[in-house]
Structure formats: C-alpha cells, structure tokens
Amino acid sequence: MAITDLTLVQTIKALKDKQFSNEELNQAYLNRIKRYNPELNAFFEVNESSGVIPAAVKSLISTKGLKTSAGSKIIENYKPPFNATVIENLISEGVSVIGKTNQDEFAMGSSGENSAFGSTKNPWDLKKVPGGSSSGSAAAVAADLAVFALGTDTGGSIRQPASLSGVVGLKPSYGRVSRYGAIAMASSLDQIGPFAKSVGDARLILEWISGGDKYDSNCVAEKFKIQNSKFKITDQNLKDVRVGVPEEYFGQGLDEGVKEVIEKAIKKMEELGAEIVEVSLPNTKYGVAVYYIIMASEVSSNLARFDGIRLGGPRDLFGDEPKRRIMLGTFALSSGYFEDYFIKAAKVRTLIKKDFEKAFASCDVIVGPVSPTVAWNLGEKIDDPLKMYLSDAYTIPASLAGIPGLSLPAGFSENLPVGLQILGKYMDEETVLNVGEVLEKALNIKEKPRLR
Hints:
With 452 residues, this protein is of the alpha/beta class. The protein has one domain (3-443): Amidase signature (AS) domain (Amidase signature (AS) enzymes, Alpha-Beta Complex). Helix content is 34%, strand content 15%. It is built from 13 helices and eleven strands. It has an eleven-stranded mixed β-sheet with strand order 1-3-2-4-6-5-10-11-9-7-8, with helices on both faces. Helix 6 (199-209) packs antiparallel against helix 13 (429-443).
C-alpha cells in the first residue's frame, strides 16, 4: 500500500510507528500533486514547505501567507495576514496546509465550473464534474492528493461533491465549527467541514476543528467529543437504531440507478439490525425556492463590501453566477418585495425545520440520496441555472434546518460514485458518524479512481 493510500487514522499510526517520516509523507503527496493536478485542476496553489500531516483547504478559508481568492478574479491575489480558526486548530494538532483548492466562485455553484480559474475535473472520469462548490477539495481527497481536506457547505457544497467524487463528506451542525476566517457567502447557512477517506477520519477532523472562539457568536464553545450513544462503534450492527426514510426523497427527478444504490444501502442497514421507519418531510418541495431567496439575500449583503474601493478589484470582475445571485438577493430585499419574498421564505424555513423535528421524534437518523444523479458531463448544465440548482434538492433542507449531514460512498451507477446521505438531530453528529461507520464497514467499498 502506498503512503498516499492511507487514511488519516492510518497515517497518524504509521508516523507514530516510524514507518516513514513527515518529510517522506509530504513528498509523496507533493509528487502525486505534480503528477495529477495539471489535469485535475484541484489546486490553485501548492505549499511546497508543508511539513506535517498534509491537508488541502478550500480557497475561501483564510490561510496566512497563502492565496485566499475564493475562486474569484476580484480578490485573485489576496493573502490574508491571519489564519481562520479552523486552520489554527489544525496547526495545533500537527496538520499543515499542502495547498489551496479550486472552487466555484465565492462558493456559488454545484459543479466546480463557476471558478474563475477553470473547472476541476472528476478523478473518476475527467469528462465529468466533481460537484461543487468545494470541487477541488473533493477531487483532491478522491485522487489521494491530500490526507484530507476542508470545504464549506451552505446548501450542499461538501455533501454533494463528496457524493459525486466518491469520498466521505461531513456538514456539521450550524454552530458546531467556527466560521471565522471563511469568506462569507450566506452567514446563516455556511458551515466548514471535512472531506475524508473514511468516517473515522471525519470524526477525528471534526474533533480537531470544532469549538468556539471569540469571533463567531453563533458557534458553541464545546468541542465535539465522543459521547455515550445508543451503540458503540465497535459493534458491527445497527440494533436499536431507527432509520427514517422520507418519501419525498424518492420521487420524481431521482435517477433510477442512484435510487437502486440507495435502496440497497437501506436494505443493508435493515440487515444490520436497524428498524426502517417511513417519515414525511412535506415542505421539502419548497426547499430550493426558500434557499435561493434566503441565500441570495445574504449574498447580496455579504458581497457588498467587494466594491473595488475598500476591498477587491473592479466589480466587473465578478463572474456570472455571483452577479446573478447578487441581483436576485437585492431584489428580494428591496422595498415592496421584502415581505413577499424574504419574510415568507424565512417562515417556510421554520416549517422545514419543524418537519425534521417531527420526523426525528420517530427515528434516530434520516437517510436518502445526496444527489439525484451521478456526476454529469462538464458543460452539460452550465447554461441552465435552474437545472443546476435542482441538483441540490436533497441537501438544501438540512442546511436550512442547520442539522448535521454525512455523505457516505454507497456504491456505483454508470461506473460513477453514489453517496448515501445520513442526517441527524441538531448537534448529534455522534449518532450520524456511528451509523455511518458501521455501514461503511458493512458495505466495504474499496474502489478508487484509476488515474492515468
């Protein structure tokens, strides 16, 4: 097994056992980046002086002395004088930043094609998208160009690319991880989380990056730590776990091949002892509309500071998608329309949150597809924004509710990865990760992309 095949947990053990040095570890990843990144375009910038456990970091997360462009020409050469809280937390755990990853501009996109610096390619098929907006982070982990990566998830931007790229992706509960140092897109939705090679890795990374600071008032002070849950992760079954399956996630628009993979994974959970419970999330159908009003309104506010005077270059450097969302949000917030759009959307957001609360009264986790399809062809949806927006239909509701969600590789359709989404109660990442880890062991998916 090559050094770059190892998971984070395996890498830490190998370093402790002196199977290789930090220098050998980093050089192995740097060599792989040099070989494969020119074609994948997963990294904007590579840090040759990375010296400990090498992690990739989404471009919009502030890293002292490394470019933090958010995938935009408007701040192309911005190098922050400080680290985001999550980066400081990782440094204290012996992690270094091996590079900054490609992304949709200001995290606006579902495919990685909205980057001002070219599209990221999917390691499973270079003609396909890797998902977005955290496209480079997902591709970097899938192609073994980093031990793990950080991304951000506003409406699915960790879970969806994790699904399309065949890796583990975790969106923590809103407020679990400090947002300080992450360039804001939609402040009531943004959350930083990990892309990893295993669920155990995601658990460890969450423990490292979680916890409050004096900068993000929405972040809880306590760090995530393993608690006493319904079952131990050493168990090889899901006995006494109730798994909710929402009818709304299996209707029109779900690709038949994806549906088959997800249903097989749910069947496997039942074989492992889980009780399968039908639940309903009736306001799911409004999720995309509600999200694009609330998110765009917050985008309009957050990006107003990039005016070419105080911050950033000329405003005409914004790409088409940021311009589209700024205009939509400005309209929704304007006099005469605020109550008709933003206020109504906020009220329906509350209904969506209540849907989850009601469903969780009868189950411990909720499962379903992450994406309605597998990865699509580059260029296929780029000229149809609505079609692109609908690719996040299954990830958006959990973001609106602020609950945790895990994307777990569950199988393949059309020779491309399919992710199972596991959603949990607010601040109950523990149960989500425990269920994910047991299922991961049972599914035992070992396939990796075959890079040339």
